[in-house]
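Data availability (excerpt). The following record was deposited with the supplementary files.
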Amino acid sequence: MPEVSQGSVVDGRYRILERIGSGGMADVWLADDSHLQRRVALKVLHGRYAQDLEFVERFRREAEAAAGLQHPNVVAVFDRGDVDGTYYIAMQYLEGRTLKQLIDAGLTPEQAVALIRQVLEGARFAHRHGIVHRDLKPQNVIVDDEGKATVTDFGIARAGVSEITQTGSVMGTPHYLSPEQAQGLDVTAVSDLYSIGVMLYEALTGRVPFEGDSAVAVAMKQVSQVPQRPSSINPRVSPALDAAVMRALEKEPGRRFQSADAFIAALDAAMREPGAVGQSTAAFAPLPPVVATPEEAAAEEDEEKRNRRLFWVLVVAAVIIGLLAGFAFTRDTTTPVTSVTGDQLNVAVALLQQEGFRVGEVKRVQREAPVNEVLEQDPAAAPPADQAELDCAFITFFCSKPKVTLTVSAGPGSATVPSTAGLEAEEAEERLEAAGFAPRVETATSEKVEEGFVIHSEPGGGETATRGSAVVLTVSSGPRQAKVPVLVGTQRSVAVQQIRGRGLVASVEEESSAKPAGEVLRQSPSAGSKLPVGSTVSIVVSKGEERVAAPDVVGKLRSAAVEAAREAGLKPVVQEAETEVASDDGRVTEQSPSGGTKLKPGATLTLVVGKFVEAGEPEPEAGP
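Predicted structure:
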């Protein structure tokens, strides 16, 4: 396509105002949408990507998927198009600062968690719709003046700015990519959660976990090194928050949070209970020694020695018994339980067995969480819950770790979509929600279905769909309507053509006017009104100024001529002129203007009326 620059128009719709960003794969421009009268952020692919048909197709396909994401923390995609072989996307224009700018300015732990929590909510919504961001970083998060965070570039970041390639594919920004991305492995929603963990780390400490002289060096550290704990850099980071960050940055995807919900729950728990719950071991003391009482009677020397030996044996026995009793009754028989909530079942079982726990009953319940994700565990993890009691025998000398009962997700399950065609939109939404679905309303014109009632749904009534999935209700907005154009001041032929071109019917009346003939004087309804197609638009057209013909009254009697002039709408002015012709007496001998002349109504018609005068006797000629 022609080079995009300030003042140029893309796709006949978007007028470029200024460049607001540039990256390795595209430029972002601020543009005016002339169709909807709003400002948008227009992302236009660089030329080198436009030549890669596979890349352009993936870009187009993922942009279409991203356009379906409607969430407060996800940037809205309004439009996308292919112009002369180059792809563009029109997105919501966001005003504010990037999360990176806020991090550089400094954030408290509370502010950092509040912003990252919003990023997780946006990621959760995208993941549930099958979209993985692949390039989450603070530069892709815009925060407005009210503290609302919005994630940008959803669905188009697979080939985002990067300095690293692996088997020819772009991997993402090295400081925020997951270990599996660095190794060129498959990218999943859990990879996004690792990137968000890096963002939280940076928000808490002011720096990323790994730095290096090159992108490759940073990527190698992501794969092989363990980051420094955030609390060692910022002492204000609590132990619980420390633990949440380090779990998000686990190298093995199975040991991380398995969903955004689990990550959010960990952050909420960390903010409620920032300190780890500990339990001290009570001190113990030996029982008092048993003192043997010697017999009052004197005993022989050997009996006395035997008694002394028995005394010391009893003392030692008492001390040992006391020590054992103290150990038994003061021994801590509780143990912290490993947290496996949010993990996949196989990972949870391996972690528990590794820590010496036994897995008891596995309960399955239908939830929106992924299949086999651990929802609850009993005993609960500590902290913040109380620690679990050991299973002990013979007082407390022989103890083992308890069984852990797990409740896991069996998935949301499926259900039959209720029939909603012909129902009012509100009633249809209530039926879908009651059946466990998420209704989404779209409108369409209809000549048959009354406005506000459902035309059809997708999936349709009677079909089977996953609980929690979206069901799109197409609701009638009434008959197709046309917007009445501005007609006043246009010519009759043009006005009629515009009316008919919008599916409306023209009704034309004429009236005299000082305006040029054929010009539209009035219209009904007014311009901008919306009417059902087939409705009538009335216009009043000028037929020019009215003219009357001057009557031909020459030879008529004065009274008749005056009456004729007045009937024609003219103003008669009579002038008398002497005449020697007797037949012209009292009759019009001249008129001005002449008969047939077109005049404005009320114009003057001058009438000359003869007045007979007899001719005088000729004077006699004088004699010689």
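Summary of structural features: The longest strand covers residues 14-22.
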